[in-house]
Amino acid sequence: MGANLYISEMYNRRKFIQLSAASASLLAVSRSVIAKAVEPPQAAGFPVVISTWDFGVAANKEAWKTLEKGGRALDAVEAGVRIPEADMNNHTVGRAGYPDRDGHVTLDACIMDEFGNCGSVAAIEYIAHPISVARLVMERTPHIMLVGDGATQFAVEQGFKKEKLLTPESEAAWKEWLKTKKYQPVINIENHQKPGDQHNHDTIGMLALDAKGNISGACTTSGMAFKIHGRVGDSPIIGAGLYVDNEVGGATSTGVGEEVIRNVGSFLVVELMRQGYSPRDACKAAVDRIIKKKPQTAKDIQVGFLAINKKGEHGAYAIQGGFEYAVCNAQQQDLIIKGESHYPPEDSK
Question: Which of 187, 222, 230, 299 is deepest in the core (most CB within 10 A)?
Fold first, then answer.
């Protein structure tokens, strides 16, 4: 009996050792899997920053200074879009923007971070960097949007300099427009550079994916040239001109804001990516919806969407040909990609 008990104990001990070894092995594998799951897959394509139009190249380079150091996407997009806001040769964004029909330069901007926090200003005057005011609305108030005189007052209280924004060049363009007062936005700015022309893609939208895999976005504009005083487009409206969902991706828009607002365009693009659409296909579906609802209107306007997903994949689609977007990553800082479109470019029609 003693021998049988000894054999039984030896068997149980050997079985325990085997089970312990197996458990340790499984635990090691589990820890390895978990580690891989939480580590940002750098090879998947980030950090990366993208923005609308060719003037996004300079904006992206500024944003990259933050991203390449491992900085936050929110800081990157704010710094990036401040570049075109300050560009005296850019008449569709910031301080050199064309005025409304009454000669007022009014600016719109919004910003959104990886936590869903957002801030916005609309029809703000006398402040050169509306994007930075929008960020303070997000961080220092219980609100999301401030408009008009209230937005300007808030900016001054926060230390922003109040200054005249109507430049001599913009004023000359406005006076030229007053000769006819014809409100007919052109499709793409690159084909229309003479004074008095109206530009309907007056926006820089920027999306960044940082080294931690977090997404933020910013959008800023001087709005439609020679618009009715008080008009606000899609650019400062969360869900229209810009939307970010850190589980899925982000999207921004450019073009005639009224059509983007009607379709809650950027939110639509992100929700389509949630359903499994690629960034390009999501942008195309949003454009197709605009065309389907108003086919006659769509023939004469430009609307474009730009999107990025959590993998760092990006894409764009527009109603009219000629839409471009800029890409900046560790491999290249000045890449310009021509977005696909429903209609071909003007020069190929």
Answer: 222
pLDDT tens readout for residues 224-243 = 999 999 999 999 999 999 99
Do 46 and 70 contact (CB within 8 A), yes or no?
no
Task: Look up residue 81 and give its DSSP letter.
Answer: H
The active-site residue out of 66, 152, 203, 252 is 203
Dist. CA 270–CA 337, nearest whole Å: 21
Cα 175 versus chain centre, distance: 33
Q: pTM for the complete prediction?
A: 0.84
> What would the pLDDT profile of 31-81 be if each residue is shown by its tens digit?
333 333 333 333 347 899 999 999 999 999 999 999 999 999 999 999 999
- 203: nearest Cα among 234, 249, 165: 234
Distance CA 45, CA 187 (A): 32
- Whole-angstrom Cα distance, residue 344 to residue 321? 5
For the question of residue 203 being annotated catalytic, the response is: yes
Largest CA distance in the chain: 115
The neighbour count for residue 224, using CB atoms within 10 Å, is: 23
Residue 265 burial (CB < 10 Å; 0-12/13-18/19+)?
buried
Contact 219, 203 (CB under 8 A): yes
Write the CB contacts of 66 (distance below 8 Å, at least 6 apart in sequence): 72, 75, 76, 79
**Cβ distance 131 to 220 under 8 Å?**
yes
